[in-house]
């Protein structure tokens, strides 16, 4: 009853257009949901996400749920998740992509989901890793482990926006470490992140994980920049 009372005073709104949501809607109104630029890249493994990493690191499978375009709906979703505390968006996108991957043969061999880590200082400031709920929902859909205590970020880094991919990759890899490698030895790991841009962050994480014996890697993100 209390939840219904709160909804009466502050009816939930669409995270993109801010229209009041119907009872049948969640996170997004029907119009905004249908307008989302869905990639369906999991259905074709020779896709733009995987091509980002050609010649850089060996990736078995790669996909992103959505296309990211500036000043568009997907940017608003990720902004609300990352900076406004709306963790339900990560859960929503994780359930969505998790259901898709659960019906895709190439992703049936995944053994565990590992998130791109946050440094503990940033984690304290934000209160959560923005990819945590996304990754947990994918792991739940695939009925596999979510492992967030193996790939660690030991050093905080400054913004990487204006740096080249090569310099970003080198600096990022130096900030990462592996703990409890036995938890993921000889396993196929799905690395999850919010966004693929240059791929430098995911490349650094991949190289660090490949230090563990017997590892195979795949990638899944919420979105990829066009």
Written description of the protein model:
The chain has 226 residues and is of the alpha/beta class. It has two domains: 1-35, no CATH class; 37-225, Rossmann fold (3-Layer(aba) Sandwich). Helices cover 37% and strands 17% of the residues. The protein has nine helices and seven strands, in the order αααβααβααββαββαβ. It has helices spanning 2-9, 30-35, 48-52, 73-83, 88-102, 120-126, 132-142, 165-174, 200-209, and strands at 62-68, 112-115, 145-146, 151-153, 176-178, 188-196, 216-225. The strands form two sheets. The chain has a five-stranded parallel sheet with strand order 1-7-6-2-3, with helices on both faces. The chain has a two-stranded antiparallel ribbon with strand order 4-5. Helix 9 links the parallel strand 6 (188-196) and strand 7. The chain is globular and about 50 Å long. The model is unreliable at 1-9 (pLDDT under 50).
């Amino acid at each position: 009853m209390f939840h219904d009372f709160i909804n009466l005073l502050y009816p939930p709104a669409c995270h993109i257009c801010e229209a009041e949501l119907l009872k049948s809607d969640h996170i997004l109104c029907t119009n905004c949901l249908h307008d989302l630029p869905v990639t369906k890249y999991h259905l074709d493994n020779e896709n733009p996400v995987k091509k980002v990493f050609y010649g850089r690191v060996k990736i078995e499978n790669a996909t992103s749920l959505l296309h990211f375009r500036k000043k568009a709906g997907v940017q608003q979703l990720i902004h609300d998740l990352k900076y406004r505390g709306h963790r339900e968006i990560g859960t929503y996108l994780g359930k969505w992509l998790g259901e898709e991957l659960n019906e895709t043969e190439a992703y049936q061999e995944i053994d565990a989901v590992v998130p791109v880590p946050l440094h503990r200082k940033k984690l304290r400031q934000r209160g959560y890793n923005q990819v945590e709920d996304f990754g947990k929902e994918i792991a739940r859909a695939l009925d596999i482990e979510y492992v967030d205590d193996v790939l660690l970020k030991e050093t905080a880094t400054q913004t990487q926006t204006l740096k080249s991919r090569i310099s970003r990759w080198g600096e990022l890899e130096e900030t990462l470490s592996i703990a409890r490698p036995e938890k993921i030895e000889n396993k196929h790991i799905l690395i999850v992140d919010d966004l693929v841009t240059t791929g430098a962050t995911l490349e650094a994480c991949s190289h660090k994980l490949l230090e563990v014996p017997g590892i195979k890697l795949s990638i899944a993100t919420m979105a990829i920049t066009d």
